[in-house]
Amino acid sequence: MIRAGILVVKETGQKTTIQGEEHRYVRCVLADETNPERRFECRVLDVDDVGVNIGEPIQLQVQKVVTDRRSGVVRFDCTLLPPGE
Q1: Helix (H) or strand (E) holding 18
Q2: What is the pTM of this model?
Q3: What span, in angstroms and rounded, lies between the C-alpha atoms of 83 and 51?
Q4: Which of 10, 12, 67, 79 shows its CA 20 to 30 Å from the CA of 58?
Q5: Which of these, 80, 79, 74, lies nearest to 56 by C-alpha position?
Q6: Are 32 and 47 in contact (CB under 8 A)?
Q7: Where are the domains of the chain?
Q8: What pLDDT digit, counting tens, does each position of 12-57 carry?
């Protein structure tokens, strides 16, 4: 699955533990290109930065979908796709 949109939030320098291994990531929030009211919360894993500025288009390849049952938030763990793919 691919998530594409306009980058509205970017938080670099984040760290998390997944299955006992520490991973660095960038937290991103994307606005859907066709419906900007719709937002996607994504973690781009194993990178320090995504090289995309806020307000620019971005495409991410979803690796895993994670649902926080307490808050009801769905988050996507992703890798960055090169532009045009």
Answers
A1: strand 2-18
A2: 0.86
A3: 11
A4: 67
A5: 80
A6: no
A7: 2-80
A8: 999 999 889 999 999 999 999 889 899 999 999 999 999 999 999 9
CA nearest neighbour of 58 among 79, 35, 37, 38: 79
Give the Cα separation of 49 and 39 in Å (integer): 20
Query: Closest by alpha carbon to 58, among 2, 8, 6, 1?
Result: 6
Give the DSSP letter of residue 4: E
pLDDT in tens, 55-77: 999 999 999 998 988 888 889 99
Strands 2-18 and 57-68, bridge-based pairing: antiparallel
